[in-house]
Amino acid sequence: MLVSAKEMLTKAKAGKYAVGQFNINNLEWTKAILQTAEELKSPVILGVSEGAGKYMCGYTTVVGMVNGMIKELGITVPVALHLDHGSYEGAKKCIEAGFSSVMFDGSHYPIEENIEKTKELVGICNELGLSLEAEVGAIGGEEDGVIGAGECADPEECKMIADLGVTMLAAGIGNIHGKYPENWAGLSFDTLDAIQQLTGDMPLVLHGGTGIPADMIKKAISLGVSKINVNTECQLAFAAATREYIEAGKDLQGKGFDPRKILAPGVEAIKATVKEKMELFGSVGKA
Ligand code: 13P
After folding, report:
1. 84 among known catalytic residues
2. What domains appear along the chain, each with residue ranges and CATH number?
3. Of 33, 119, 172, 233, which residue is least crowded by CB atoms under 10 Å?
4. How far away, in angstroms, is 285 Cα from ligand 1 center?
């Protein structure tokens, strides 16, 4: 059964570790992440962007697939199915479809509008027992080949959003999605510290987990980060393993063209990436 992310993140914040959110794209991704979480006895959050939701034939398809896998694979660790960077409409659709957690990303709205929309979703999620992630300070990343810098959120604005009763808060601290550029300035720990001072027990979320050095991850966790999102790193690992298989001509040998064989090395690469992250984040054995 899917669970809200509230309990797992409250425990993570208190225990000074972080739960990974791994984004899913298809059946192979989902299965690899769930099996790794179960093997390592780690709680896990499956992230679904609006684009990935569309790709997987809509949110109800995703809910059906994930619930089916939890049952068929005998998954016993806590699993939250979470909308990543949702619009207001997207969040409502996911709630209707049976997601156990949603993110409403109102960071591009003026703060008043972000507060207004977040507040309404807090009411809905509380009533249904779902977790809600809000965002302050846009997280940069690559768009049309240009890498935008990550903003640093205003700690006072973070407090305003946290006080609305959201479950977890994503705040920009110089992090970006995708690969970090050579000249990246690193995470702003002063900003993170100021946010945690004002928001207290609120679990903080670090987006753009791909490529952040291990020491920075550990420091971020020590300053209140209890959820870390990883997407690109699994994609890169999957692509590299698939490339190796094809370049070695394995698809041309025997039944090597069978899609289950072609996709197998990529699946193993995702599992290895997820394992490495769960160990780094400290969530192993915490289910
Ligand atoms: P990366 O793709 O950089 O790992 O970021 C993932 C993320 O933050 C999803 O919201």
Report:
1. yes
2. 6-281 (3.20.20.70)
3. 119
4. 24
